[in-house]
Design a protein that fits this description.
The chain is mainly α and 77 residues long. Helix content is 58%, strand content 5%. A two-stranded parallel ribbon has the order 1-2. The model has no long low-confidence stretch (mean pLDDT 90).
């Protein structure tokens, strides 16, 4: 894992510990957007992860249905 991915994960973890408990559990997606970000940064490069996380956050709006949306999609054979 590269340095940028590690730094991004640390920032997300700080958010999860410091701010998330005070905002309440409002994420309509599973896993939550912050866990999705960690999963992306653990699995993909920084640029792709950043793009996926931004796209996920943009989809998290009052008109989306939410639901199960893992960061790493499993391909069934």
């Amino acid at each position: 894992m590269n340095l940028l991915n590690s730094a991004a994960i640390k920032l997300v973890k700080i958010y999860q510990l410091a701010l998330s408990p005070y905002t309440g559990a409002h994420c309509k997606y599973v896993p939550s957007c912050s866990q999705y970000a960690c999963d992306c940064f653990n699995h993909y490069g920084f640029i792709k992860s950043f793009a996926l996380v931004v796209w996920r956050i943009l989809r998290c709006n009052p008109w989306s249905q939410g639901g199960y949306d893992p960061a790493v999609k499993q391909i069934s054979h």
